[in-house]
Every structure is written in structure tokens, then in C-alpha cells.
Amino acid sequence: MKKIPDKYILVHDKNSIKKQTKYALLCKGKAVLELGGVEGVFVDMCLKAGAKSVVSIDRYPLGPKVIKYDVLKYFKDTKKKFDIVYARHMLEHFSPADVLYIMKQTYKCLNKDGMFVIVIPNLNNIAIATYEFWREFEHVRPYSILGVRQNLEQIGFEVVKVSQDYDSWDNSWYKNIIRSIQSLIVGLPYQTPDIYLIAVKK
């Protein structure tokens, strides 16, 4: 594995295969673009699921199957078309202006009926909003799923699914009891899973 850049320290994502399985299954027979591939785990998952092709890019790739490329520059340079663009925990690394640019360029590079799959931290999770989110030094700002949806629809996407991602955390019964107690104490959802959105280009 390549050395992590001295610029920042990554918070390692444990259990990433479990967290991404359902998204990889969407990729069967599809040309896939992954934004922010890091180690390249999703590349192998997509190919195993039967993806036609997978391009994974990251500013600081940590695996040989991920291409070193800034997301914004890639969209300026590429002429390729894709069936799925996948962005898991990526938008929060960019400013609002850059996120809008990514959304617009994703729309342009998708084939008709292509999907834009987005996973972001859930701001209903008070632990994430007040502490956990800011442990990642490269995070620029969190985004609400409502704001993401509204901007996607304004660009021309049809949002077909928005849901909490229960694969993104430990669903054991004792963890859920602890979360319920914490939520009762603070009067707000203390912990909630990631939230994901699937938008289609019509």
C-alpha cells in the first residue's frame, strides 16, 4: 500500500466491503466511474459483480487500480460516457461551487437512464454533525440530503431513491439500545447511519 500523503491523515474506513455491496450490485453490465476511489476496493467489487468497465479516480490514490486524478480536472478532460457515477463520502470534500460543478458534469457524462449514486454523512446524526465529521481533516463542509436532492433536480436529474444506509454501521441489538438511550438523553437522534441517494438522467 502506498504511503498516505503527509498533507493529512485519513480516517480508515473499516468494513468498506459490507458498506458498498448493494452499490456494486447495481453495476452489472455497466460502465462505471467512481469518484474518490482511495484504495480501489469498489473497483474489485464492481468487476466481481459483472461491471462492463470501471474507472476509479482519486487525488491521492492508495491502490494500483485507482488513477491519480483530481475530480474537477477529470471532468474537464474526459470525453468518456458512463452508465453509473458513484460518489461515496466524496461531496463533503468540496466547496458548494465545486459540488454543483460535479453534479452538472456528472449529468453530461452519463448515458441516458444513467445513475448518479451518492452516499454522504447523515446530518441527523448529532455525533457526526458535531464531532465525527470534523475528524477527517480534508472535509470542507457537510451537505444535507435535501439540498443535494434539490440541486440535482434543478440540473435535470430524477431522484428515484433516498434512504438511510443501514449497512453503513453496526446493526447489533445492543448498539441500537445504546443509541436509543443516547437519543433520549439529548432529545435528538444521537446516531443515525449514512444516507444515500440515487438519481437518474432522463
Q: What can you see in these coordinates?
A:
The protein is an alpha/beta fold. The protein has helices at 16-24, 41-49, 71-77, 96-109, 126-130, 145-155, 173-186; strands spanning 31-35, 53-58, 67-68, 82-88, 110-120, 157-165, 194-201. The protein has a single domain (16-201), classed as Rossmann fold, CATH 3.40.50.150. It is globular and about 50 Å long.
Rg (C-alpha, Å): 17 Å
Shape: globular
CATH architectural type: 3-Layer(aba) Sandwich
Number of helices: 7
Which helices and strands, and how do they pair?
Blueprint lengths: L15 H9 L6 E5 L5 H9 L3 E6 L8 E2 L2 H7 L4 E7 L7 H14 E11 L5 H5 L14 H11 L1 E9 L7 H14 L7 E8 L1
Parallel strand pairs: 1-2, 1-4, 2-3, 4-5
Antiparallel strand pairs: 5-7, 6-7
Helix pairs in contact: 1-2, 3-4
